[in-house]
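Quarterly update, task 2.4: heme C-bound model.
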Amino acid sequence: MSKHENPYPGENNTGHFWDDEQDLRELNNRPPRWYMQAMMVGVVAVVIYSFYYPSIPWFGDHYKGSAGWTQITEMNESVAELEAYREKKFAATEKAIAESSLEDIIRDDELRTYAVKTAKTLFGDNCAACHGAAGQGNAGFPILADDDWLYGGSLAKIEQTIANGRKGNMPARMLGITDAQADELATFLIETGKGAQGNPNSASKALYMSKGCIGCHGPTLAGNQMLGSANLSDSIYRFKAEDQHASVVRTIIHGVNQGHDPQTQDAVMPAFGHSSVIDAVQLKKLVVYVHQLGGGVPVAPAPKKASVSKDPKYTPVAAKSDSFADVVVAAEANYKKNLAQNAAWRDTGKMIKEAKKSKNVALAKKANAQAVNALRQASVALTAGPTF
Ligand code: HEC
Ligand code: HEC
């Protein structure tokens, strides 16, 4: 350690040097004026802010500020603003969803996209815990994103499922099946599930037939969507397990939803239709969402509506009033248009003549109605008929 000597005598430095060359040294100058002024402004701002906003801690509580501001009120205001915006922007679409049939929502690109997008969160909140975030299923909970349906993939079936819930029922140990028979049946089902590669044993098939399985799963093992009895021939397992053979044996011995049997396979889909969790519009959105996950039965295109021609040749003349004279004038005018279009009905002219003779308003009205009808028909035929 050498003796400390200031190499810059007379300079306004503090004597602290930060490098060996003693180039970096601490000076003791006044800060610039602009800097001090800015600091003063800051001090004043702190005082004003601490009056205006919540600030000083005070005996277990704190000074609340003159503005009444809290993070919570600010958040509530933002949420209200967002909701008002949504209400304004989407009210019409929400209304259209409420009023359209499920088929029409699927057919309409805008409604369908909106329903799917908004249902995503609903699905996440209410369904994903059991069916997986993207409907990919979980052990014990069916996949919703494929076209293998227990209860059917039409819009109506999906709606029934979500609204009313489902609870498949399969008895335990049908007709006194023994453990050995259960094992044999499981082997048979798994082999059959492999399709052409499988080599199911015909004696086992007889066992399947004789133990009543056929009643619910059918002769081809394809299942029955009325009962929700799984398809046993497609190797898609409703109760998927590491050891699929053991799972099938368990299903056969303990059944499905047999409350008295602790080892039974649980399969309860809760009913959402009468719950306060989701409302009718949300239910519709969920049906559309599940349908659109990939396995929905396609919806037929809407029947084409015949458009009525706007051509004045086909536009009926309206009677000015219900008086006999006005109705007859309208009837005659419309009948004339009928004739011009080659579309007159045989007795319209006769009815008008008779009405005029007997001054019968009712008959005149009937004649007019017929003439108007003929015009409509002619105009529809023009746009809806075959074109050559
Ligand atoms: C508590 C778990 C659980 C929740 C929550 C749940 N589900 Fe299910 N869901 C099931 C079970 C279990 C089944 C099968 C029922 C059966 O096998 O009888 C099922 C079946 C279904 C099916 C029929 C599948 C088919 O193949 O036919 C649909 C569709 C469905 N759920 C949709 C939904 C929707 C949409 C929601 C959310 C609103 C939902 N689920 C919420 C458990 C659940
Ligand atoms: C009363 C109707 C009924 C009868 C009878 C019945 N099952 Fe079932 N079975 C069902 C239903 C319903 C399910 C699907 C349960 C569900 O998903 O909710 C099912 C599911 C199964 C499964 C599970 C399939 C999978 O994908 O994991 C197997 C295996 C099975 N049954 C085999 C049999 C056999 C073998 C018999 C005859 C011994 C039989 N079942 C008799 C109604 C029946």
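Highlight for this quarter: Residues 10 and 27 are 12 Å apart (CA to CA).
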